[in-house]
Amino acid sequence: MRHLHPHTTRPLRLRTAGAVTAALLCTAGLAAPAVAAPPRGAVAATEGAPAAVAPARDDGLALTPPMGFNNWNSTHCRADFDETMVKAIADIFVEKGLKDTGYEYVNLDDCWALPERDESGLLVPDPARFPNGIKAVADYVHSKGLKFGIYTSAGTKTCSNIGFPGGLDHEYSDARQFAAWGVDYLKYDNCNNQGVDAQTRYRTMRDALAATGRPIVYSICEWGQNKPWEWASDVGHLWRTTGDISDNWGSMLSILKKNLPLAAYAGPGHWNDPDMLEVGNGGMTATEYRSHFSMWAVMAAPLLIGTDLRKASDETFGILGNREVVAVDQDPLGRQGAVVSSGGGRWVVAKEMKDGSRTVALFNESGSPQRITTTAGAVGLPGAPAYTLRDLWEHRSYHTAGTISATVPAHGTVLVRVAADTRWAQHPPAVEPGVDGGTWVEAGKPAAVTTTASDLGRVPARDVSVRVAGPEGWTVRAQSPTGTALLAPGGTLRTKWTVTAPEGTATGGNDLTVTVTYRAPDGTRVTRTLPLTATVVTAPPSGTSGLGDLPWLSAANGYGPVERNTSNGESAAGDGHPITIGGVGYDKGLGVHAESTVEYYAGAACETVTADVGVDDEKGAKGTVAFQIWADGTEVASTGTLTNAMPAQPLTADVTGAQLIRLVVTDAGDGVDSDHADWANARLTC
Fold first, then answer.
1. pLDDT digits (tens, 9 = 90+) for 575-610
2. DSSP 3-state assignment of 39?
3. Residue range 33-49: mean pLDDT, rounded
4. Which of 346, 430, 460, 515 is the right S-S partner for 456, CB 3.0 to 4.6 Å?
5. pLDDT tens digit string along 639-650?
6. Does position 238 have pLDDT exceeding 50, yes or no?
7. Local confidence band at 53 (pLDDT 50, 70, 90 cut-offs)
8. What confidence score (pLDDT) does residue 52 get?
9. In 3D, which of 411, 421, 324 has the Cα closest to residue 366?
10. Residues noted as catalytic
11. Are 457 and 386 in contact (CB under 8 A)?
12. Residue 105: enclosing H or E segment and its boundaries?
């Protein structure tokens, strides 16, 4: 639970990495090879030398990634974290079908105990929160056919500011208490560790849990500080790979990018843990939450619900309860998905499945729709006349001649399961709805939009038609044919449209839907829908303007919000300082934190972007970053790795004719650690 703030060496008490990572160790074992190979054809994206990985434990626990609930993200230490809540979550698991879907553990995070041990050195449950004690709660959870988890820290105190007792030097006593209470899962945090060696601390609790004789999944939560993926497979059943997640796109994206390269270290009984789920907590859109859930599943990550299910919407239950996506996460082969490609924010991640199929995530990290394409061969499938392609969110099967492709909405993910299948002809051809370019609209001015319908299959699609629907009051007119009697395999129907938002329409996103209908060879009518966002924008002003003063289309940041004309500061909005790089101050610019992307609408009216870029002085000697400028999906300028010891570097990009400009800051490939970056004096000339 408590994490390392992305740029500080001390754990922040803002949140706890606790939820997802709650427990996994106890008696672990070698249930599978310690190193899982990536899919054939996939990029070998691993960190370190997998040959050095310790063998996994052979105790039969956590043979698939743990699934369940942890309260931290939704309650922290507030009073609503109590016995009543925990019992209600167990009830909801049963009533809403989550138990049948595979969710199993109901886990407590920090703040369940009193601040002091008793005279015998034992932990004491808080009588206000848990008046009947912990065993009674565990018994209730067990009565529902579920399992129960608890939390402590491998230090003298837990991560709470209140300072509840930690497990350091009390490992065997605490483990005996946990076993006596009926604990099935332990999350062991890293706060207040007194500088004691991490491997020593976590191995001691492993041995203490094993000595109880009770099977307890053991979750190592040391935030990835000491690369536990290299040594913990014979210690715990899962280990946190990063600091704590926050309920925003930038945090989720940063953690995703840190966890993806570690695929070779995961497998049955030993999992990479990118932290708990934020789905349903309100800080991201439904599209972003589906991406979050999809990518955690394709990474074979623990799925620990972090929202208060007593308040969850049907939409949230729909995401968490998608059994086809859960089946990807729980596949018994236990492979973590490997990166196949990632250029321009267009990610292809492929996960080998036990039945020989591949689950493929087409993930769009950018703020605009993008077509993402790969092939069956690239994701490791054998050659075949055609392949069955199952859309796991659409819950429908198609066939493809080998191309795996989709136009993916901003921050969206298309998740498909693809197999070489002799029965491919039973399914209609995959006709992909798409859009060329962006969907930006200036109020009162017709915007040109081109839709596509592409037959990816082996047989023709017949009676193909395309329609576009916008918000009430908008005008959508076709400027070229909207249908064709026959769309040949590999063919594409392109239709030009004008989309007009009424004068006075406020800037921001609006729903725009592309629908393609067609007939399969057996006469079946098929409808496929592509939900998009039409963004009402303001044309950039003529002349040279400071980017810190212009409206952006979207902004994602690794820690806290992007700040205008100040440094990034900490997690709160408006907490930045004067921009300073190498002792030189700047009045204007953008303060960000890796991983960061800021997008601006240029409307094909601008020529250059200029800035002085570097690591801000506010974190001392820490921070390594790299800067990129993109114009309509093409990188047009970049730096190498920049450190805090370096002065600001001038960066200029030619963006002539671009509709969209993206300013990107990465962690330069060495992980996030105080990566506060500045686009000082950032200017756009139009």
1. 999 999 999 999 999 999 998 999 999 999 999 999
2. coil
3. 38
4. 430
5. 999 999 999 999
6. yes
7. low
8. 52
9. 411
10. 189, 244
11. yes
12. strand 105-107
Peptide bond into 595 cis (omega under 30): yes
Q: What is the pTM of this model?
A: 0.89
What CA–CA distances, in Å, run from 529 to 79, 222, 466, 502, 514?
44, 43, 10, 25, 6
Predicted local distance difference test score (pLDDT) of residue 344: 86
The predicted structure's pLDDT at residue 40: 39
Sorted by sequence, the CB contacts under 8 Å of residue 143 that are 6+ apart come out as: none
Q: How do residues 88-113 score in pLDDT, each as one tens digit?
A: 999 999 999 999 999 999 999 999 99
Give the helix/strand (H/E) hosting 100.
helix 98-101
The answer to whether 382 and 420 are in contact (CB under 8 A) is yes
Nearest-5° Cα angle at 82, 79 to 88 = 125
Within 376-491, strands assigned E span 387-391, 396-400, 403-408, 413-420, 431-436, 440-442, 447-455, 461-469, 475-478, 483-487
Residue by residue, DSSP assigns 558-589 as: SSS--EESS---SSSTT----EEETTEEESSE
Taking the C-alpha atoms of residue 217 and residue 236, their distance in angstroms, rounded to an integer, is: 8
Two tokens at 404?
């795996």
- Name the least confident of 27-36, 83-92, 176-185, 334-343: 27-36
Q: What whole-number distance in Å separates Cα of residue 290 and Cα of residue 440?
A: 24
Task: Report the range of poorest mean pLDDT among 138-147, 198-207, 410-419, 555-564.
Answer: 555-564
359: buried, middle or exposed (CB in 10 Å: 19+, 13-18, 0-12)? buried
Q: Kindly report the backbone phi and psi dihedral angles of residue 518, in degrees, each rounded to the nearest multiple of 5, phi listed first.
A: -160, 170
Q: How many residues does the chain have?
A: 686
Query: For residues 360 and 405, is the Cβ–Cβ distance under 8 A?
Result: no
Is residue 306 a contact partner of residue 72, using CB atoms and an 8 Å limit? yes
Question: Please, are residues 433 and 407 in contact by the beta-carbon 8 Å criterion?
Answer: yes
- Helix (H), strand (E) at residue 338: strand 338-341
Q: What's the mean pLDDT when you consider all of the chain? A: 92
Nearest CA to 663 out of 619, 605, 607, 613 is that of: 613
- DSSP-derived pairing of the beta strands 589-593 and 676-685: antiparallel
